Fold each of these.
Amino acid sequence: MAAISRSSVRRRRRSRYNVVPAWITRKRAVLSVVVMFSLLVVAGGIYGVRLSLALAKTFHTNPISAVVGALQGGKGSSVEQKTQHYQRINLILYGYGGVQHAGSYLSDSIMVVSIQPLQGHAPLIAEISIPRDWYVTIPLRNGKSTQQRINFAYAAGMLGEGPEPASAVDAGAAVADETISHILGIGVNYFVGVDFDAFKQAVDAVGGINIDVPAGFTDNQYPAGECPPNCRYETVHFNAGTQHMNGATALIYARSRHGNNGQGSDFARSRRQQQIIVALRSQIESIGGFGKLPDVINALGDNVLTNLTIGDAESLYSLVNDVNPASIEHISIDDTNFLYDCGYPRNCGSYYLYTDDKSYASLQHYIQDIFPTPAALAARAPVTFVNASGRNNNATSRWASLMNMDGFPTTAGGRAPTQVANEVIDNSGGKDVAAAQWLATFFGTTVTTEPAPTAPVTTPPATPGVAAAGGVTVILGSAEEQAFLGDPGVGQ
């Protein structure tokens, strides 16, 4: 069993924890509820009536439409139409504490799930994390705007401060979708707003779930409650082995991010979250859990807002169901790449993140071209980034990290004599031409081909034309740094 003990350690009001569990960022988490909905096709009698009523509440429609939508299996839905035309699909997940918390609709968890359908290939999926402390311009009603953290955008709509929404369901998204679409330079098709009671109640509705904890761990920095008034940490501990968890315990297991024994990484946390979704699905589909399916969907319906129809949800599930989770891109927009912090508490009264490029052009370019072609990634070409901007900055580590999140094996190389233009060098003897070509297109240049080195190079390249054994070298010129910072004086 999970053991939870309280400590006397106070924490700062600003918390790194998401208000809602991060499991909603995983592919199965985003769409797992669709499995429940699709079971409607085998339901009948009074059970079917209860289920159709629950579906109607979650998708904000009438019971008859809910049944028809489920039986159609996504046929004719807007998602199916986009899939047939290989159009990119962007869905935003907003997580908030709900009415039982201070700042009920501050979306402290924001995740853009972007899906690119492909012909003859599994769709490409990227999960793009948006930090809550990003200070941006938020559009309000009557052409007005406000400067606030981005997590206020959803709350502004729910509080009636945004443009007139299509319905009460869309109020928060009417403001937040427009804000994020402007920043990232992509259209937003769908949204899902969730408070964390949805997760807890769904687990409790099926009588709890069984989880095989692979490695016991202790987290001494788990938030003890809502801050304020409770700004203390508590210690939580999970033993290794199979145990039964109720909703509250499963939520802690999913959210913990400072555990020892190898459980303090995002990768470990994501793996735990996947466990919970699989366990919940298994319980729902079991003989004991199936009868409680209406209760599960009712729990979600009380805590979920979305503009997805039942047909849309089923089409999304069909689209991504067979995607290997390991192929999903996990993108974090933060102060290691496009943002910087204000220097709290020395330089500013509150913690804020700002964008280097105030036009957002460099960020938009990255997000709009976030999917390398399958051919570019197929050979796992090693890519080395070299700094020729003439500045002692983090350009190599920044781009190595960004392109690694896109799926390339990358290395932050050394410095080279200053040059204005970017350069992409194929050192593989033609083996990695697809990767080199995609990178050249992204960085606005052409490919220079050089013979593959005959001996391994053990140190990062220091001059143009000297690269790691095989692979591709990207030389970042001063113009790249100018574009990235939106500063015409950089590099001159």
Amino acid sequence: MTDTTNPDAACSPSGDPYLLTPGPLTTSLSVKQAMLHDFGSRDATFIDLNARILDRLVAIVNGDGSHVSVPLQGSGTFVVEAMIGNFVPADGRLLILINGAYGKRIAKICDYYRRDYLVQETAEDVPVDTAQLDSTLDANPDISHVVVVHCETTSGILNPIKEVSAIVARHQRSLLIDSMSAFGALPLDAREIQFDAVVASSNK
């Protein structure tokens, strides 16, 4: 993080120091100015604005007709938890593809929710092993869902989402995607990549 007491610290055009953390990131002056106006939650203007945002979020992944956007108030971990808790049933079994801290956090969430899970882990600098994924699903017919981190924040490693999706779909399982550090920046097309849910956060 930038030292705010240092006059030589790197600053944005508005004079605010740049935040050099994974998130929340520095907010631009135009965004701050847009937030100066208060909207009533039942005002027509707010309802229309909210509807446009939700539609545009779905459009980013070309998910019109197949997916909907559900806004939740909370951190990135909060919405990942919501995805796991709502999409993986109590009698389901989740395969967690881990190559960093956020994959490991999903396992902790499963512990809290008492969801059964299996872990496939690779090193932090190694993408998900798709051949191993294929064999794991073949050997474990009780796995109902697979979850993968699109871009692992801790290392920046990018996982092969398209290949993962194809394997999961071929085995007729459900795919969940944590796209916190990738959504809107890296391609994710619902017409090409089959997934049940993808989660992201505005602070990224």
Amino acid sequence: MSKGLNRFAILVANATFFLIIAGALVTSNDAGLATSDWPLSNGQFLPPMVGNMFYEHGHRMIATTVGLLTIGLAIYIRFSDKRFWVWRLGFFALFAVIVQGILGGLTVKMMLPLGVSAAHATLAQLFFCTTVSLAVFTSRSWIEAGPLREEQASTPLRHMCTIALVMILVQLVLGASLRHSAKWDQHLPVQLIVAHIVGAFAVTVALGGTAWSVLRRHPGVTFLTRPATIALVLLVVQLFLGVASYLTRLGSPGDPQPLHPMIGITVAHVACGALLFATTIVLTLRTYRVLPASEAPMELAARPQES
């Protein structure tokens, strides 16, 4: 195991999280068409960073940086990790970031069509999932983790975590579609609002039940209980941010421009959603690492320790 590889993977995951925030700032400031050309901005590689150009071109520069980091990570994995499946995941990340860049260009060239914009936001979350997974797979705690015994005749935590993770991804897609469905001076579609609220309820039940089950079944095993606890805290914060973002967005059609309260709360909601997604990814992968695939009990081995 290479400690340097793990640190670099964590760097790429953090850079991707920062890129998601930058994308949310572009949407919330209605800066997606600050320039009509791509990949240059107004025919320049470094245009004056004023007004909405700061958000739009800044987002492009961050995306370029993430792309270069992903190339470096794929090469680093190829020469530092002997696990073939990790190599494949690293090159999948490289493929995903290339497609993501193309989708980003299409959103500009096609004047922000909802389908392409939603696909761009969805792939961003899938790419983030991949970088977080690589950070987990290259960590010392993952390498050294030993098996635990799952309770007999209970719903396997593997299944519960997977369901919660899929629900969060669907909810993120709904949120992205909702944000891109109308500008700040337009009202949001009622159907998407209802779908997003229903999705929030489903995620709360699924993730809340999963995290509580982890804490009840494996107390003291920080390898599992730590991400479960963080997920519960982030879930509560995300629900409050969701209500606040809806209330501030509700009055924005009467504003002369996107105002800071609406922008700040909406971006915080997107950022917290990404963190909740990342934490649930960590929890899900760790359950697959240390818990049995079937409901048959296993002998309790050495409990994994945090790195």
Amino acid sequence: MDSEFDLIVIGGGAAGLSAAQYGARANLKTLLVEELAVGGQALLVDALENYPGVMGPVSGYDLSEVMRRQAEAFGASSLTATVSELRKDGGFFVVDTSEGGLRAKTVVLATGAKHRHAGVPGEEEFAGRGVSYCATCDGPFFKGRRIMVVGGGDAACDESAFLAKLSDKIVVVHRRDRFRAQASLAERTLSNPNIEVRFNTTIKEIRGTKKVESVLLDKAEGGGAHEEAFDAVFVFVGSIPQSALATGAKKDEAGYILTDDRMATSQPGLFAAGDVRACSFRQLVTAASDGAIAAHSASQYIDEMKGEAYAPSSP
């Protein structure tokens, strides 16, 4: 394989696949680097029904496979490897991988973010079978059902409000004696008639056979653990952006990469797309949009490096 490219996309989720496709369509020599299987967080989605233009439900795996084939059809190549370092050397980026060193004029970081887990028995076993980390993605499957939300921050309050539109049986459990969310979000959660809030309560185990059926809870004041029936458990205890490679770019306090509306970071030639960048809404469709914009901006950047005039492209 060649070692020099116009565009290297690091991360094979929706943002990375979209960036690879649009980079190749712009006639950039494009390489997608992913350490595991392409698809990212989408691989955890068993039945996706809210991706525009795709009549669901479709599995996240199947959708990712279509996106991969599209990128390759336009000429993008791919490499399965772990990226250990990203640095600038003159006018090029050097990308050190487990398969050797690479060079690129531009880079799109689409490394995503990992959901923090509650870390209790049953959580991994029932992921995608009642355990979820995205209310917008999976909430509609549990309309009218008994749903538990774990967490006490902004995300937990936001997502419980969304779920409360689908069911009047929402129980939010938080291990502390008050929410750590913004006051306005906390107040709306506490005053929502479809939401029951239980402070000083921890989740000990998620139980079931083929899907979630019950949860073991423990109240801090004592009384021992008790089991309650639930159909779903939504965990919102934070995310960890995978932004360690972006040593030359500015980040927010949580570690998410800061970009402008062109997906450009503070480091020239480096772009970020999807869950790894600071944004207010994270979905497959927004990640794909980010990737397309990032690749288009990378193409513009290369044209500017060559001193060529920019002509807007058609979709």
